[in-house]
């Protein structure tokens, strides 16, 4: 074979190179122009109505509307096939009455208005709305942070909202299609985008405050950071701080791990008037911290922490043959495995990836149920201690308090990874460490209680039998929101003070 002269080789390379460069430049022209010239939608900087974006971004709108289709059946979470002990471990709190699996962002506001935790709680506050509606920033504007979170949900917040945003419900009827009753104001475009420039933004100021407490100024966030931080506005643990006008607050003062958040929450509880927990258990008279949905935190110390939420949950998808947009249907990445996972894991088969995810989730569910089962028993051991003490037997306050503290800790370390919605995928080790600590603390609680009870002659086998029957009665009740009524009975009365 004749060797090609080196000059010749160079010029061919040069031609190929220039051609590639040209392709690249043509390809980039569009996106560069977009970057240099900030977008101006012409919308009001305070626009909150999702419909206002519909005609400007028809492909995104179409993708967003897919949130109306449920990916899975929205079962109550205390269904025996999911988490049977919830009516016990949450007894005394609304979550024991009704708590459902998630569905699309477009339904978030409507689902909240209709859930029994809200409809049957006359004292619900507007802070509940802070992660459900695009109108919340307007409420902040109207009432200021001192009042906006603490309004009565039914008496103050809803009437104001009806007045401010209810009117626009009419616009749906004429030609806007069905976007759930309050879909025009449910989590939407202005939650994550500046309505004028469409830059990603944080629209909920308590999120900015939380990052500040962590020592991170959002001004310094990169675009890549923002692809997760927009989700951190809601997919996090939070509480309504009584020392700060009930404002939505993330317990991030010491860091993001579940262990850090526990330490910080215990510090808050130790302060005069500080947050003790969402409720006091009717079974164990223990103040309990109810976990919300700490996806951002668990992910932040897991194996995919360098991969953004949007990378997996909002993958680029082709919409009209050639154009690609970020999917705005937030759901399971397992349904978009090619675009969500194989962009990085192209060397692994889809079946391998699916199996890996299932394995992680199965192991997670096993430990979740074990921790929940033992935690539920621990509540009943405290109950028996309190009952015996009230009967005049020699059980000290200190012994009861020691066991209550263990129950509280055990429940936190079960609830955080259980409330996190990925079933451990976001951070298999972090979740497992949490369950291990939960099981350890609940077992410790049972051990300490057993000693105290045996010292006053309690028949522990009989106690165990009663606990088993009670658990079974909860499971067997078919009316979902009645289940919690069986958690309290003649063996285990309500012992809550007040
Ligand atoms: C303003 C608050 C808010 C923001 C911001 C937010 N979410 Fe959500 N998300 C929710 C709520 C509330 C639900 C549950 C809705 C329901 O069940 O009615 C939810 C549900 C989900 C679900 C489950 C959907 C289903 O069909 O079950 C996924 C996945 C999700 N969000 C991912 C994300 C990602 C990724 C981001 C960031 C790009 C994000 N969310 C930003 C509040 C938010
Ligand atoms: C939960 C947060 C969230 C909500 C709600 C949301 N977006 Fe986005 N949007 C994103 C993220 C994240 C990106 C990717 C941005 C990036 O990486 O530059 C994006 C990208 C975009 C882009 C840029 C092009 C693209 O596809 O990447 C447009 C336009 C857009 N969104 C429009 C909308 C519209 C219209 C709505 C309301 C119907 C909406 N978005 C609601 C988070 C959100
Ligand atoms: C590496 C990919 C990946 C990243 C990064 C990621 N997730 Fe996920 N996420 C998943 C997978 C996989 C599941 C499990 C889906 C299933 O079980 O079908 C999941 C589940 C979820 C769910 C529950 C969905 C449902 O149907 O109820 C939510 C909510 C969620 N993720 C939010 C987030 C948020 C917020 C972030 C960023 C802090 C994030 N995810 C980062 C892959 C990812
Ligand atoms: C942006 C790149 C990226 C994306 C997208 C991504 N991953 Fe990963 N994945 C990684 C990195 C990096 C690691 C860590 C590798 C390590 O620790 O050696 C990892 C690790 C894993 C692991 C653990 C390794 C193993 O085989 O046990 C699994 C499982 C996994 N990814 C599954 C997924 C799934 C499922 C998705 C989509 C929902 C996904 N990944 C999306 C980059 C990515």
Automatic annotation (TrEMBL):
Chief location bin: other
Family matches, as PROSITE patterns: PROKAR_LIPOPROTEIN
Signal peptide: 1-33
Segments forming a coiled coil: 453-480
CDD domains, sorted: NrfA-like
E.C. number: 1.7.2.2
Subcellular location: Cell envelope
Gene Ontology biological process: anaerobic electron transport chain
Gene Ontology cellular component list: outer membrane-bounded periplasmic space
Keyword Metal-binding: yes
Record key words, sorted: Calcium, Coiled coil, Heme, Iron, Metal-binding, Oxidoreductase, Signal
Catalysis performed (reactions): 6 Fe(III)-[cytochrome c] + NH4(+) + 2 H2O = 6 Fe(II)-[cytochrome c] + nitrite + 8 H(+)
GO molecular function per UniProt: heme binding; metal ion binding; nitrite reductase (cytochrome, ammonia-forming) activity
Entry similarity comment: Belongs to the cytochrome c-552 family.
PANTHER family (UniProt xref): CYTOCHROME C-552, CYTOCHROME C-552 RESPIRATORY NITRITE REDUCTASE
Record protein name field: nitrite reductase (cytochrome; ammonia-forming)
């Amino acid at each position: 074979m004749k060797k090609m002269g080196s000059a010749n080789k160079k010029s061919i390379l040069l031609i190929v190179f220039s051609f590639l460069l040209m392709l690249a430049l043509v390809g980039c022209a569009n996106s560069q122009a977009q970057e240099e010239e900030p977008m101006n939608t012409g919308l009001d900087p305070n626009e909150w109505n999702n419909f206002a974006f519909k005609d400007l971004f028809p492909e995104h709108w179409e993708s967003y509307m897919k949130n109306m289709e449920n990916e899975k059946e929205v079962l109550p979470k205390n269904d025996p096939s999911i988490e049977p002990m919830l009516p016990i471990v949450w007894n005394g709190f609304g979550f024991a009455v009704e708590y459902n699996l998630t569905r699309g962002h477009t339904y978030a506001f409507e689902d909240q208005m209709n859930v029994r935790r809200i409809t049957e709680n006359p004292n619900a506050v507007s802070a509940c709305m802070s992660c459900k509606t695009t109108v919340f920033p307007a409420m902040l504007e109207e009432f200021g942070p001192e009042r906006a979170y603490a309004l009565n949900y039914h008496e103050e917040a809803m009437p104001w909202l009806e007045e401010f945003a209810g009117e626009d419900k009419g616009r749906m009827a004429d030609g806007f299609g069905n976007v759930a009753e309050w879909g025009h104001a449910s989590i939407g475009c202005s939650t994550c985008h500046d309505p004028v420039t469409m830059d990603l933004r944080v629209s909920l100021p308590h999120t900015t405050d939380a990052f500040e407490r962590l020592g991170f100024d959002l001004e310094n966030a990169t675009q890549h950071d923002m692809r997760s931080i927009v989700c951190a506005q809601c997919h996090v643990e939070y509480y309504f701080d009584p020392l700060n006008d009930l404002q939505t607050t993330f317990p991030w003062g010491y860091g993001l791990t579940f262990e850090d958040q526990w330490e910080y929450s215990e510090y808050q509880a130790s302060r005069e008037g500080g947050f003790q927990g969402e409720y006091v258990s009717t079974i164990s008279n223990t103040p309990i911290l109810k976990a919300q949905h700490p996806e951002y935190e668990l992910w932040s110390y897991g194996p995919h922490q360098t991969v953004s939420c949007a990378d997996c949950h909002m993958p680029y998808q082709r919409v009209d043959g050639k154009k690609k947009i970020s999917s705005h249907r937030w759901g399971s990445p397992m349904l978009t495995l090619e675009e969500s996972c194989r962009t990085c894991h192209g060397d692994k088969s889809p079946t391998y990836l699916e199996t890996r995810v299932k394995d992680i989730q199965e192991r997670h569910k096993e430990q979740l149920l074990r921790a929940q089962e033992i935690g539920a028993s621990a509540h009943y051991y405290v109950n028996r201690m309190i009952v015996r003490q009230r009967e005049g037997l020699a059980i000290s306050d200190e012994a009861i308090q020691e066991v209550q503290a263990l129950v509280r800790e055990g429940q936190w370390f079960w609830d955080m990874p259980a409330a996190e919605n990925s079933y451990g995928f976001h951070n298999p080790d972090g979740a497992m460490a949490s369950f291990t600590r939960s099981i350890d603390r609940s077992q410790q609680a049972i051990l300490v209680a057993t000693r105290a009870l045996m010292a006053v002659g309690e028949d522990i086998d009989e106690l165990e039998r009663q606990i088993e029957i009670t658990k079974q009665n909860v499971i067997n009740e078919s009316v979902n929101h009645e289940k919690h009524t069986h958690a309290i009975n003649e063996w285990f009365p309500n012992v809550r003070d007040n």
